[in-house]
Design goal:
Helices cover about 45% and strands about 15% of the residues.
């Protein structure tokens, strides 16, 4: 019988204190943008240490008020090939799943918008990484697949989030067949926001970064909160939740008042990011 550990044994492990300490990621801050680059050649296979680095990096970035946006991309030709096979052993699966959940919960719960840049295959856990991004920019080199069914398991996170993104029938198709979809098909399904030629990828990402970071950081945070916190609620309850954030949180910000004053005075807002 394999002994399983308490989740707290792993969540309280020594955590990365600096972005520079990462071994499997390149994490850096450029002004108001944090860039996290998956960097485990050749396929960016996810193992427990890499997932914990991802969770720690997002946690560190999420505490920095000056950061407005997180960009997640890859240094390899493959965006992410999913979970390393060795992590599925009965001795390793508990720790791996705990790290997996921590990383994805970090992406979902961080106040910063997350843009995923996919310029290659995103398979299994890699496809789930892209799905959890707030926006996805892809090139025709991208493809997305949840092949877990072929090895006798199902993707728990994809099974939860895909119905929200593409609807239950398409989610069932993706999970039950395990077949990959092209970048073009992913765009049609709603898995991808923008599909651009590879030669235009850098400019498109830079333009989107400039567009988003030109807005107030706290207002971006509240807009993301209003959208995601309404998921799963009835329309009536979702409206109530959004209005509560708007009236009781947004209007306490200096930037919301500055934006209104700038509109009346016909000038560009001078954001204080508070």
């Amino acid at each position: 019988m394999v002994e399983t550990a308490n989740p707290e044994d792993y969540s309280t492990q020594s955590r990365k204190k600096r972005l520079e300490d990462c071994e499997y990621l390149k994490a850096r801050i450029d002004g108001s943008v944090a860039r996290i680059t998956l960097n485990r050649p050749e396929h960016n296979l996810l193992n427990e240490p890499m997932l914990r680095e991802l969770a720690d990096s997002i946690d560190i970035i999420g505490q920095k008020d000056e950061i407005k946006l997180i960009v997640l991309d890859s240094a390899c030709k493959i965006f992410c090939g999913g979970i390393e096979v060795g992590e599925y052993t009965s001795q390793r699966v508990f720790q791996m799943l705990d790290a997996f959940h921590s990383a994805f919960a970090g992406i979902l719960e961080t106040a910063k918008p997350v843009v995923c840049v996919v310029n290659g295959p995103a398979i299994g856990g890699g496809a789930e990484l892209a799905a959890f991004g707030d926006m996805v920019i892809a090139t025709p080199k991208a493809r997305f697949a949840q092949p877990e069914i072929s090895i006798g398991v199902f993707p728990p996170l994809a099974s939860t989030i895909l119905p929200y993104l593409v609807g239950p029938k398409k989610a069932l198709e993706l999970v039950l067949t395990g077949e990959p979809v092209t970048a073009e098909r992913a765009l049609e399904m709603g898995l991808v926001n923008r599909l651009v030629p590879e030669a235009e990828l850098g400019r498109t990402v830079d333009d989107l970064i400039a567009r988003i970071t030109g807005h107030s950081g706290p207002v971006l945070t509240m807009a993301k909160k209003a959208i995601l916190s309404g998921m799963g609620l009835s329309l009536k309850d979702g409206l109530k939740q959004s209005m509560n954030i708007f009236l009781n949180e947004l209007y306490r910000l200096e930037d919301s008042q500055e934006g209104l004053h700038a509109l009346v005075e016909k000038r560009k807002p001078n954001w204080k990011n508070r």
